[in-house]
Specification:
five-stranded antiparallel beta sheet; 3 helices; 12 strands; L-aminoadipate-semialdehyde dehydrogenase; alpha+beta; 182 residues
Length: 182
């Protein structure tokens, strides 16, 4: 990976902008790149709604690459509170690039959870998914529920199975064995 060696870092530093999207970049990698002077731009969008936001900012002074700016689209989106200071991004029916609807009013609830910046308006950081969908580091997404149920059905000695993988290159199961009790 370019971020892991000096030659790669120099290449990234020479670029006007370095953009990432498709999946959240690991904070430790993004922070390292920004600390080394890379103008890192995070982009957010979806197949259902197209491009919605980026972290474009005053790069020499604003180092918060992980915070997405929704200023230009603020009239087309809203954030609905869910839990623990997190809000779900909802795209309103008037957004021109919206290709899918899942709410009665014609809006699209993305199931993407964000936390608001403490002082910058219309600025949010991606946190996680509201649903069971897992987003791998390569941007691939999947719902592990059916695989978890298949594993449980085929192995009676298991009490539960959790498949995780957010931000990882591949999913991995975590098995909970049944313990015999007297």
């Amino acid at each position: 990976m370019l971020a892991e060696d000096d030659c790669g870092i120099r290449t990234l530093q020479s670029m006007k902008l370095v953009g990432v999207g498709g999946a959240a970049l690991a904070t430790v990698i993004g922070d390292r790149l920004v600390a080394k002077g890379v103008n890192l731009l995070s982009r957010f969008g979806s197949a259902e709604c197209g491009f919605l936001a980026s972290s474009h900012r005053d790069y020499p002074f604003d180092k918060e690459w992980q915070y997405l700016r929704f200023g230009d689209v603020k009239d087309f989106v809203k954030f609905e509170g869910r839990h623990d200071d997190l809000a779900e991004l909802v795209v309103k029916p008037t957004w021109p690039s919206k290709a899918k609807t899942n709410l009665d009013d014609g809006s699209y609830a993305t199931s993407d959870l964000f936390s608001r910046h403490k002082s910058l308006p219309d600025t949010w950081m991606y946190h996680s998914r509201l649903d069971a969908q897992v987003v791998l580091s390569n941007g691939k997404k999947f719902d592990p529920s059916t695989t978890e149920l298949d594993i449980l059905a085929s192995l009676p000695q298991l009490r539960d199975v959790y498949i995780f993988g957010d931000g990882r290159p591949q999913p991995e199961p975590n098995y909970c064995r049944c313990v015999a009790r007297d």
